[in-house]
Write a structure and sequence with these properties.
73% helix; extended; mainly alpha; cell membrane; transmembrane; LrgA/CidA; CidA/LrgA family protein; 126 residues
Length: 126
């Protein structure tokens, strides 16, 4: 499991290096996840890649362990919020408005994307 976690973190590090090196607008962990996805997709085709943490579902087991304890990763964010309560009191209304606006924009983008993909594949959206 340690090697699998190391592989996940290595992919994240490489993704971060790629985004900073090429000045991409994507977050480094997203590029790292894409790299990990590519590794998982090609692991059955190449025997060399299938060795180590990629064999026998090692990455899947490690990621399941991370997901089971995901709530622990929110503790630092919660501490950061409590630490900045004075800013929240000062700008609370603006923060709530921006959050509400971002939810609406996200929902609209999701609906428009769904409708576009439905048309492209010949299915009518409900």
């Amino acid at each position: 499991m340690l090697a699998s976690l190391g592989l996940i973190l290595l992919c994240q590090l490489i993704g971060e290096a790629i985004t900073r090196g090429f000045g991409l607008l994507l977050p480094g962990p997203v590029v790292g996840l894409l790299l990990l996805l590519i590794l998982l997709l090609v692991r059955d085709r190449f025997a060399i890649i299938a060795q180590g943490p990629l064999r026998n579902g090692g990455v899947e087991t490690a990621s399941r362990g991370l997901l089971n304890n995901l709530s622990l990763l929110f503790v630092p964010a919660g501490v950061g919020v409590v630490e900045k309560l004075d800013l929240i009191y000062a700008h609370g209304i603006a923060i709530v408005l921006i959050l509400a606006l971002s939810v609406v924009v996200t929902l609209l983008a999701t609906v428009l994307t769904f409708r576009l993909v439905s048309r492209l594949f010949g299915h009518e959206a409900p």
